[in-house]
């Protein structure tokens, strides 16, 4: 068997094969993923990160309560929005636990490291998959128009959501074991595992971006066609502007998600072999940006929606009235 050249890890604490890092060389970005354990080797400030995360907890709580209301839950994609907020909340809580362990103990056990990283990966992938389902449903609504069956769509969502949850938890199960120190990096088992991991990570990164990137374009085309049918005497440009103005909120939300994901996608492919500390810090920064949508359902799905925003205001007034009645 040919020997593997050994390089000093960029954290200067251990000798590792090229592109591997960590206390026992258990981490690598060769498969387009990263472990939060590498925060130990960066200068990112924990205080700012935790502040953002705790604000995210508050925002997600408000989102969940809002989407639990009957009026918002019965909206188109209402179930998807509710579960996006729930998954985002779970992901944010686990992320806080994981970072707390990293920043305070500086040493994580196998269960803490593998299980928490596994859950963060699953919940973030599931979150983006649910946003892709929302994007698809919007296209279906626009295409079917008046013949769209809202109850049928809700029934399908009740089937699709559990299937996606089970799929993501099972497909990523290998991550519970992927960081074990491998004596032979060229074994057949490791080759198939690494190939499988690359394919899965690429799919989970690219597919949600594709759906969120192109769904607004398809949505606009379908809606403009409807407008032309209803208003044949109006110019194409006028119909196009009217569609953009009327459905601007449905168009903006997917692109916000794309903005958060594309930097991580670019860096994951460009710096898939980390050899220097500044590359690791860049990788981690864009990865944390990639996780921001887990905490921003309030801004992406509630504030842009007039009906959700109205329900939020009603909840706020009910809360103020309750507090006032308790005081007096």
List the helices and strands and how they pair.
Layout: E1 6-8, E2 15-17, E3 20-21, E4 27-28, H1 46-67, H2 70-73, H3 78-105, H4 110-144, H5 150-171, H6 188-230, H7 236-246, H8 248-270, H9 277-291, H10 297-302, H11 306-327
Antiparallel strand pairs: 1-2, 3-4
Distance between the termini: 81 Å
Which sequence of strands runs across the widest sheet? Answer: 1-2
Mean pLDDT: 81
Give unreliable regions as ranges.
1-14, 181-187
Integer count of domains: 1
Query: Any guess at the CATH architecture?
Result: Up-down Bundle
User: Using DSSP, what is the number of strands?
Assistant: 4
SSE-based structural type: mainly alpha
**Percent range of helical residues:** over 70%
How many helical elements?
A: 11
Morphology? globular
CATH class: Mainly Alpha
CATH superfamily membership, which one? Answer: Rhodopsin 7-helix transmembrane proteins
Summarize the structure.
The protein has 328 residues and is mainly alpha-helical. The protein has helices at residues 46-67, 70-73, 78-105, 110-144, 150-171, 188-230, 236-246, 248-270, 277-291, 297-302, 306-327; strands spanning 6-8, 15-17, 20-21, 27-28.
Notes on the structure:
With 328 residues, the chain is mostly helical. It has helices spanning 46-67, 70-73, 78-105, 110-144, 150-171, 188-230, 236-246, 248-270, 277-291, 297-302, 306-327; strands spanning 6-8, 15-17, 20-21, 27-28. 70% of the residues lie in helices and 3% in strands. The strands form two sheets. It has a two-stranded antiparallel ribbon. A two-stranded antiparallel sheet has the order 3-4. Helix 6 runs antiparallel to helix 8 (248-270). The protein is globular and about 70 Å long.
């Amino acid at each position: 068997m040919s020997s593997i050249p050994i390089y000093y890890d960029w954290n200067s604490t251990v000798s590792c094969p090229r592109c591997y890092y960590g206390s026992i060389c258990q981490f690598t970005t060769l498969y387009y993923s990263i472990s939060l354990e590498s925060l130990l080797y960066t200068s990112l400030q924990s205080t700012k990160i935790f502040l953002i995360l705790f604000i995210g907890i508050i925002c997600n709580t408000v989102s969940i309560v809002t989407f639990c209301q009957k009026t918002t839950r019965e909206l188109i994609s209402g179930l998807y929005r509710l579960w996006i907020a729930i998954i985002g909340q779970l992901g944010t809580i686990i992320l806080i636990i994981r970072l707390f362990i990293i920043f305070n103990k500086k040493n994580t056990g196998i269960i803490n490291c593998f299980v928490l990283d596994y859950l963060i990966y699953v919940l973030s992938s599931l979150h983006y998959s649910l946003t892709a389902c929302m994007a698809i449903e919007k296209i279906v609504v626009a295409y079917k128009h008046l013949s769209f069956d809202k109850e049928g769509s809700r029934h399908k969502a009740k089937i699709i959501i559990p299937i996606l949850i089970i799929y993501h938890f099972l497909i990523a199960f290998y991550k519970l074991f992927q960081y074990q120190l491998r004596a032979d990096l060229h074994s057949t088992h490791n080759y198939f595992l690494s190939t499988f991991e690359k394919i899965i990570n690429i799919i989970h990164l690219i597919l949600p971006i594709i759906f969120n990137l192109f769904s607004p374009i398809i949505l606009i085309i379908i809606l403009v066609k409807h407008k032309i049918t209803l208003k044949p005497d109006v110019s194409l440009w006028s119909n196009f502007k009217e569609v953009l103005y009327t459905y601007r909120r449905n168009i903006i939300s997917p692109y916000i998600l794309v903005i958060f994901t594309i930097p991580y996608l670019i860096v994951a492919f460009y710096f898939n072999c980390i050899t220097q500390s500044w590359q690791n810090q860049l990788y981690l920064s864009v990865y944390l940006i990639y996780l921001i949508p887990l905490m921003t359902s309030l801004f992406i799905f509630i504030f842009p929606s007039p009906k959700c925003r109205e329900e939020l205001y009603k909840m706020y007034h009910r809360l103020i009235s309750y507090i006032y009645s308790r005081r007096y």
